[in-house]
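Hey, can you fold this?
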Amino acid sequence: MEGLKARRGDLSGPVLAILVTLVLLAIGAAIIAYFVLLGGAPQQAIIAVVGQPTIVKAGANGFMANVTIKNVGSTNITITTGAAANVKLNITGRTLNLNYPATGTIKLAPGATVTLGFYSTTGWSSIATRETVSGALIIRDAGTMEVVFRVVKPS
């Protein structure tokens, strides 16, 4: 039996071990680079309610619902008012459009806050006896969240 004899042109054991180690280090570095450079966290728009949302009487039988939201996500949230509004509030069986801020488009940067106001010309009599009212705040591209409003009664 001849065994393992080194032939001319063969790699020695230590040289082969060094080459395998270098190849594995290069593969490891490529995997780390992929996750660090390309596999970062996705950009998300996330909203959170700040403070206590309120409902106050407005007009003869109307009410105004106010809620302050904060962008706790990692990308801008676009809030559009008017005919192309992307913000709605479902409350007491009705869908309310955003009334203020009255500007056309608001870019809510990460960490920024804005107070949104929703006006209804009717419906105060159905909520005047309650302490709180639940509603669903819908912001297209940012999500839907349940909001509990405190009813502020006139003195």
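Oh, and this one too while you're at it.
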Amino acid sequence: MQELFPGTTEALDNLSLYKANDVKFEDVDAFELEMEHFDDLKTELGYNTTWSMGEGIMALDHKIFSDKVRVVTYKCIAEMGKTMDDVTWITFTAVAMDGTVGELWKAAESCFQQAKLAIGDWHYFVEDFEVQEDGSLSLVTGS
């Protein structure tokens, strides 16, 4: 069969764009997929904080804690002293309406924004919520 435009087939064969053996796929591990998932949610929600609990991909309505209102506290250094015994602490507070990822993240974002405004906090990775004796949650962050 004669080509409509002579040399077209050869030119196309020489373009790496059309060669299947030039397509490369990179392995993406579960951690990367989880971070991408939560980065997409962060953008969608307009948050500054990054969910980094490391417990896999979860929807915002996924329950981590029991379904009840919880106070979330975030303790930060307000002023450094000469030693750790001389540190002045400040605590910020928010409320999570239930134990879902969405409500916990919203409370963490609120605490972070308060701390950022008051003391210029830069610890925006939400890494954990530690249950306190009174049932409240203490926010653990990282930078």
